[in-house]
């Protein structure tokens, strides 16, 4: 025994806490619920009844009255009830009548109250009528009632001042009102959690809370004071099936691996039972009550066994917070449900000596079943809080690990970025070195070309001059004028050869003036204007200081070759050019525009300009030649970024 208690201490501790909770709430409600002894429950044993021809009778019969015998079936659907009125000095006497549908009230031949029930979908046990009694109070009041079938007299009548009767309603139903409000509020919170988390556990919890809260509120006589809709209480029996369906759904999602097939099967069965119950309620009240009694009872027994076995299995195998709290809540709900069943059903089938020892049960609230549901909901809230806390803890740990990963990755990226920047700088330096080396190679190649050109020019000039001199020598004696022409031709050949040699030598010079780009460009333009008579209009921006020697050579050679091509292919003299250099932080843009008429195209530009374009492409440059409105345009674009 001691070992058993020690093993299950957490479960007993929670059960004790739930008992203390319900006792505290009960004492708190009792503290301000003062019963009013002014109202009196009228005893049906003193009543008498008489059959009515129909519910349209205009006054009570003068004869045919019979004493009422409790439990006797009255052989009429419409009949009169004579209720004696005691003398108690009430200032505002009212009859509070329950469990009747259509009713008329008469006193001393005058009608006091007339109510015709217009729908069969009403629960008369929760729809009361309050009938004002005239003063001075009569000896009796005659009630004309109408029922759908022959049955024992079921009417309940309480007399008292109106304030006393309302106070009784408040005393009896305040707990239901509070519990219903709490359950509905819990359902709304659960729906909010489901909207954000999309966990079906919250959805089933909301269904359980809403079904219990709705039933608690409509099984409440106080609700009629606020909102008089008799059909609401009629549907409260359907909440039994809906609540059971939601309960099974909660169990399936809390313990998804325990008795999964059986619980899933019962879940679908209870869903079908709930749907059929609602359909029967909407179709016919008789079908509704018959189906509820005949189907829900056996199903509930099966569900109770399956749920008990599942919870006990989960508790024995896990013994964690969820299994302990749900088993404690289910145990509390079961005990309170058994008390409720004893009070309203089993009491009529048990021996008298047992009932005498259970009189304390009648001091409990009439709808104690909702207290059991409330305790189970409290336990379920604890389970949801545990899950939510665990989820937040996991999210916190995940965020922490994610932050560590991000920090590590960021550090790696920073290191990689630094490495890439270093490599980029090294690559830029290497490219600049390669460009300089390429420029030196170009210079050397150009020197070889110019040297060969000088050799060819000298050889050609000397050979032609010798031929002209030899011809002049032979013609001096024969034709003096022709000999003189030959000598002049020889002189021109020598002069042109000398000019070509000078130009080649100028290109071979490797001093600072060659790399002074603006000075070299100015000298080139002046020379071309002097030798050919052309006109070059120049527009310069301030050139970047970071231009390399290779870039300067590309600019100079492009201008030199463009002027030579324009002079060679121009259609008329004097030749007119416009030379423009623009630069920004990223690009140098050079344009040479031939403004006069010309007869050449891009195909006539020759291999020399193409060779320069290939050299410019090595450092990201582009040379284009286009025929535009302003003239024939040769354009050079050079990037000025460090990569160049």
Automatic annotation (TrEMBL):
This is histidine kinase. Residues 177-380 form the 7TM-DISM receptor extracellular domain. Coiled coil: none annotated. Pfam families: 7TMR-DISM_7TM, HisKA_3. GO terms for molecular function: ATP binding; phosphorelay sensor kinase activity; protein dimerization activity. One of its GO terms (cellular component) is membrane. It comes from Cohnella herbarum. InterPro entries: 7TMR_DISM_rcpt_extracell_dom1 (IPR011623), Sensor_HK_TwoCompSys (IPR050482), Sig_transdc_His_kin_sub3_dim/P (IPR011712). Residues 446-511 form the Signal transduction histidine kinase subgroup 3 dimerisation and phosphoacceptor domain. It comes from the Bacteria. The chain crosses the membrane at residues 177-195, 202-227, 233-251, 263-282, 288-312, 324-348, 368-385. Gene3D superfamilies: 6.10.250.2870. It catalyses: ATP + protein L-histidine = ADP + protein N-phospho-L-histidine. Keywords: ATP-binding, Kinase, Membrane, Nucleotide-binding, Phosphoprotein, Transferase, Transmembrane, Transmembrane helix, Two-component regulatory system. Its EC number is 2.7.13.3. PANTHER family: NITRATE/NITRITE SENSOR PROTEIN NARX-RELATED (PTHR24421), NITRATE_NITRITE SENSOR PROTEIN NARQ (PTHR24421:SF10). It is an enzyme of class 2 (transferase).
């Amino acid at each position: 025994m001691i070992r058993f208690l020690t093993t299950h201490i957490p479960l007993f501790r929670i059960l004790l806490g739930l008992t203390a909770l319900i006792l505290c709430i009960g004492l708190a409600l009792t503290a301000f619920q003062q019963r009013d002894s002014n109202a009196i429950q009228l005893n049906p044993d003193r009543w008498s009844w008489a059959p009515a021809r129909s519910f349209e009778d205009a006054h009570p019969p003068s004869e045919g009255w019979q004493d009422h015998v409790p439990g006797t079936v009255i052989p009429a659907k419409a009949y009169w009830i004579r209720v004696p009125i005691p003398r108690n000095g009430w200032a505002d006497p009212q009859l509070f009548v329950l469990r009747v549908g259509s009713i008329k009230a008469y006193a001393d031949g005058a009608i006091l109250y007339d109510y015709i029930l217009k729908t069969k979908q009403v629960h008369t046990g929760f729809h009361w009528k309050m009938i004002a009694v005239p003063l001075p109070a009569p000896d009796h009041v005659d009630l004309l009632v109408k029922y759908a079938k022959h049955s024992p007299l079921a009417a309940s009548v309480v007399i008292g001042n109106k304030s006393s009767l309302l106070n009784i309603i408040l005393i009896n139903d305040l707990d239901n009102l509070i519990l219903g409000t709490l359950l509905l509020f819990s359902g709304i919170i659960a729906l909010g959690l489901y909207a954000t988390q999309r966990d079906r556990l919250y959805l089933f919890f909301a269904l359980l809370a809403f079904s219990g809260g709705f039933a608690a509120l409509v099984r409440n006589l106080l609700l009629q004071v606020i909102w008089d809709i008799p059909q609401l209480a009629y549907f409260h029996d359907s909440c039994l099936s809906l609540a059971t369906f939601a309960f099974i759904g909660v169990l399936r999602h809390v313990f998804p691996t325990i008795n999964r097939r059986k619980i899933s099967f019962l879940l679908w069965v209870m869903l079908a039972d709930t749907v059929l119950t609602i359909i029967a309620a909407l179709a016919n009240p008789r079908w509704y009550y018959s189906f509820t009694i005949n189907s829900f009872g056996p199903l509930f027994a099966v569900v109770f066994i399956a749920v008990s076995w599942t919870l006990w299995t989960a508790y024995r195998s896990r013994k964690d917070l969820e299994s302990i709290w749900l088993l404690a809540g289910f145990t509390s709900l079961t005990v309170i449900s058994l008390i409720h069943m004893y009070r309203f059903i089993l009491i009529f089938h048990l021996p008298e000596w047992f009932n005498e020892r259970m009189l304390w049960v009648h001091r409990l609230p009439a709808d104690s079943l909702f207290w059991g549901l409330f305790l189970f909901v409290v336990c379920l809230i604890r389970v949801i809080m545990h899950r939510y806390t665990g989820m937040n803890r996991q999210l916190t740990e995940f965020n922490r690990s994610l932050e560590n990963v991000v920090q590590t990755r960021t550090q790696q990226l920073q290191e990689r970025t630094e490495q890439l920047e270093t490599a980029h700088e090294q690559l830029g330096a290497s490219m600049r070195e390669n460009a300089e080396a390429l420029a030196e190679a170009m210079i050397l190649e150009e020197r070889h070309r110019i040297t060969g050109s000088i050799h060819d020019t000298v050889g050609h000039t000397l050979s032609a001059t010798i031929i002209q001199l030899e011809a002049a020598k032979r013609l001096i004696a024969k034709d003096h004028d022709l000999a003189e022409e030959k000598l002049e031709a020889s002189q021109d050949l020598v002069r042109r050869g000398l000019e070509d040699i000078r130009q080649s030598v100028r290109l071979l010079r490797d001093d600072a003036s060659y790399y002074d780009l603006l000075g070299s460009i100015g000298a080139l333009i002046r020379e071309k204007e002097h030798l050919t008579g052309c006109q070059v209009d120049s527009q310069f921006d301030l050139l970047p200081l970071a231009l390399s020697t290779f870039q300067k050579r590309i600019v100079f050679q492009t201008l030199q070759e463009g002027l030579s091509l324009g002079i060679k292919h121009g259609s008329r003299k004097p030749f007119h050019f416009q030379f423009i250099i623009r630069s920004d932080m990223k690009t140098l843009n050079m344009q040479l525009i031939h403004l006069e008429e010309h007869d050449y195209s891009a195909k006539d530009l020759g291999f020399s300009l193409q060779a320069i374009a290939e050299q410019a492409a090595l450092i990201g440059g582009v040379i284009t030649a286009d025929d535009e409105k302003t003239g024939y345009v040769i354009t050079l674009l050079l990037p000025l970024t460090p990569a160049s």
